[in-house]
Amino acid sequence: MSVGEAVETEPRRRRPGRVIRFALTLTAVLLLLFGVPWWTLFASGNDWPTGVFVAGTVIFAAALVVFPLAMFSGHGRHHRDGPAILGDTMLGVVWQLFVWSLLGQVLGLVLWAFGVDDPARSRVATVAAVAVAVILLVWGFAEARRVPRVRRVDVVVPRLGAGLDGLRLVLLTDTHYGPIDRARWSRRVTEVVNTLDADVVAHTGDIADGEVAQRREQAAPLGDIRAGLARVYVTGNHEYFSGAQRWVEHMASLGWEALHNRHLVVSRGGDSLVVAGVDDRTAAGSGVPGHHADHEAALAGTDPSLPVLLLAHQPAQIAGAVAHGVDLQISGHTHGGQMWPFHYLVRLDQPVLQGLSRHSERTQLYTSRGTGFWGPPFRIFAPSEITLLTLRAG
């Protein structure tokens, strides 16, 4: 077992000091997230009538209280859909108002440099910030709800045999079936996938936010997806909030091979490819018995001369793939950032944001921007995708 794997499989212990730090950090973040837009829109140098200032202050104060309550209720152990929809939508709206309020303050400095005085200067900055935020939220909502476009990528795998040249691999990930009912969207995704003549279809986790019983109808179309050689699935981190083992069993009941630290071999034209999968890196700390990322178990008994395709939910799991000589890892998790400029925060935790990247002489990684969306029903400068990877022999 490598050092990287040892870290992944170490259960996390909760400590009182960590809980206190988390609570203080959360409070500070919420005050900033709601305080900056409030300052830009209603305070600063706008000099609005008293009634407008008071009404705006009351609205933001109420939102500051309601938001965390809705998020905890909606995304807690009971997965209450109404509060989740409210909290998620508020998060998307306030995030965009926060970002564009900051940029509005920059615009205010520019106007000040050109001699524009308050309240005109602040009002122009406020109107600009609100207008851009509203436009992006409307566009982002439409982007999140549409069926993803197909992203076609050729990947050269030098050790791939000629018989498997041109193998068509469709990658789905981060469908996040959740409080907003997307059963119709799910059926349309399946229809698109079935036009792609896939040899292998892979789902790299975060199927849903909620238990199988809650999201069964939305996930049902996954059972109709067609693949010539295999349909394979691994857990993502969100499965560990909502019955991971039940999702593993449910995917098996839909005819998918759940690669729970295991592999299978697909063959064509006299050549073979190992298709392996590992649990998400958060699995060990979840308390679900038998779940942890274990590359050695996933690859046990494989022929070392065969190329290896590895399913792992997070790009951050690439170190284990490199250590075990994997040829291509496919992942999701990042959502491509989902809502600009959250992209930059994602990069603090993950080695890549999206696309094809190389991590050793042998190992490549493809990271999808995700098929669905998590939480806020918005995608801003981070389009969703159904990925068609065509594997080419070297």
Topology:
Blueprint (H helix, E strand, L loop, with lengths): L2 H6 L7 H27 L7 H26 L5 H33 L6 H26 L3 E9 L9 E6 L10 H11 L6 E4 L8 H8 L10 E4 L10 H10 L3 E2 L3 E7 L2 E7 L17 H5 L8 E4 L6 H6 L4 E4 L11 H7 L5 E4 L5 E4 L17 E9 L1
Parallel strand pairs: 1-12, 2-3, 3-4, 4-5, 7-8, 8-9, 9-11
Antiparallel strand pairs: 2-12, 6-7, 10-11
Please describe the structure with a list of short key phrases separated by commas or semicolons.
2 domains, Purple Acid Phosphatase, chain A, domain 2, six-stranded mixed β-sheet, alpha/beta, 12 strands, 394 residues, 16% strand, 11 helices, 42% helix, disordered N terminus
Question: Your description of this structure?
Answer:
This protein has helices spanning 3-8, 16-42, 50-75, 81-113, 120-145, 183-193, 212-219, 244-253, 295-299, 318-323, 343-349, and strands spanning 149-157, 167-172, 200-203, 230-233, 257-258, 262-268, 271-277, 308-311, 328-331, 355-358, 364-367, 385-393. By secondary structure, the protein is an alpha/beta fold. The protein folds into two domains: 16-144, no CATH class; 148-393, Metallo-dependent phosphatases (Purple Acid Phosphatase, chain A, domain 2, 4-Layer Sandwich), CATH 3.60.21. The strands form two sheets. It has a six-stranded mixed sheet, with helices on one face. Strand 7, helix 9 (295-299) and strand 8 (308-311) form a beta-alpha-beta unit. The radius of gyration is 23 Å and the shape is elongated.
